[in-house]
Amino acid sequence: GLSSLGEVPFEYLALRVDPAPWRPEDSILALYAMFFELHDTGERESALGVLRDTLPGPMFELLAAPGTEWDAPLVGPAYATPPIPGPEVFDLRNRRANRPALPKAAFLDSRDPAGDEDLAATAAGSNNWAVAGAHTADGHALLANDMHLGIRVPNTWYRASMVRPDPAGGSLRVTGVTLPGTPSLSVGSNGHVAWGFTNSYGDWTDLVELMIDPKDANRYRTPDDRTPDGWRRFATVQERIRVKGGADDVLKVQETIWGPVIDEDRIGRPRALAWTAHHPEAVNLELDQLQTARTLEEAMAIANRSGIPPQNFTVADETGRVGWTIIGRIPRRVGFDGRTPTSWADGSHRWQGWLSPREYPRVINPASGRIWTANARVMDGESLRAIGNGGYDLGARARQIRDDLMKLERATPRDLLAIQLDDRALFLERWRDLLLGTLSPGAVQGHPGRGELRRLVETRWTGHAAVDSAAYRAVRGFRLHLEEAVFVSLTGQEDVPEEDRLQPPAQFEGPLWKIVAERPAHLLDPQYKSWDQEILAAVDSLLKSGERQGVKLADRTWGERNTTRIQHPLSFAVPALSRWLDVPPRQLPGDENMPRVQGPTFGASERMVVSPGHEEAGIFEMPVGQSGHPLSPYYRKGHKAWEEGRPAPFLPGPAVHKLRLVPAG
Questions:
Q1: From its phi and psi, is residue 336 left (phi > 0), alpha (psi between -120 and 50) or beta?
Q2: DSSP conformation letters of 507-540
Q3: Confidence check: pLDDT of 114 > 80
Q4: Cys-Cys link to 112, which of 28, 92, 116, 245 (CB 3.0-4.6 A)?
Q5: Is the peptide bond before 154 cis (omega within 30 degrees of 0)?
């Protein structure tokens, strides 16, 4: 294909390099790239380890709570926030002088470089759900999927509709999206089953604390009884990075039997990263077999033996049934829960092979007739222990989706698209009430900014993350300013530079609300005399951030903040290319903690609603366009429908151009 081109792709002309032929291993590397896109590689576990080591046990359990009342799992109840420990356990009034120094680490960096707030969901997310035929308008099951990723030019996915031989005879039409570089259809429908993914946020990595030989720093202890006391030497691997116009950059990596050494903990102990991606068994192209799957059970079996970054796999079939399982390999964790870093030196903590497909958690045709996932916890009990907790999202988005679905008894594709576009700010309603209660007549007297804020939030709140809503942005910002202040004071980070601070995990909403609702004196930051004063300080911090930007409060709309920046990689380096390569900016509704997840550079990388066997009634939207060449008429085609949430057809229309691939000879 490369040798047949009339000219090389424009990126190579701009970079002044020659394209190299594609190799089979490059397809596997494209799949590996998604592991990096979708998985935390130790940052969250490291941050939890810091909290574990620097806080009393009950305070750690409060701040690192695994769930909240917002949870909406498929199986099991919502979690209750742990009780607030008493002053005999943790008392800020007596503890400030004894805070340990914290190293640089982070959960999710939610700070806005403009001084306001940013979309905290910078890690990959997604929504999907399925509705059984008993609850749809035509009796056929429906599947919806919108995968949330960084939005850039070109888009992550490539639309495809393929007609191929059916092993059972005749032909199959398979339609959906591919990941460029790989031969498989990632999500879509084959007329018999339709499937979609969301990032599972199971625990697919562990930080291993290494015990170093005090007599030889090049040795670490293992449970290997074939060596004296289990000591083994580090293996050293040199990775050579070629630099155009310069000398090669050589990266030396120390390897252990569990994975590469990636950092040191707060006391200087080296740590290795155990990650499913490091194991050959975790990566394969079994996903390709979904193209010919005919039943729910067959699709699930293929999913359970597929080698991709483990995802929530939601599926619907032509008989009207729906189901959920995990696609991707699940390690068998023994002796520990993987929550925080531990030593594996004595063999009591380890990974021991992989779960077999029959051991995978599954949900098939639940009594509700609905399946939903949104990066929050899906399971409970033994199933949850098998999957682990890799940093589940707050359940507010999943709960809003669940409640939307439960209202539908005769669902249509457009009904499910409407849920994908649901930008109601249900999560922030109680924070609006708290803000209005804080801005009492006494609090606003003599403070014009506070008075203006109260009038804005009281009279112009619509309950939506709408582009023209300054009230939404203000309530959201108030919550984030208060969250940061409380988390910083509880974790002793007052003297830590902002860029080095731990950031609150998604589930901190539960502890935060419990603290501001109960207002315990022993958790009040000592610089304040009352909780009213600390909460008002968050209000004033929000107002000051607006003053620094020189924008009136009423003009600081959500749309001004939530304006898309969808760029090509080359325009980052050469801004003058932006007008040709980038997508024009546009203010869009939506945010985190609601179904319509949208940020300036993050959001739905596609929207799909389809019924297997009835693809002609399906819906598909995708940002940017199908072509990666800026001179192509398809470079931005379809983007406006995605921006506007306007339904576009799932199946392609009549062919306009044809490209014939003819084998040589």
A1: beta
A2: GGHHHHHHHHHH--GGGS-TT-SSHHHHHHHHHH
A3: no
A4: 116
A5: yes
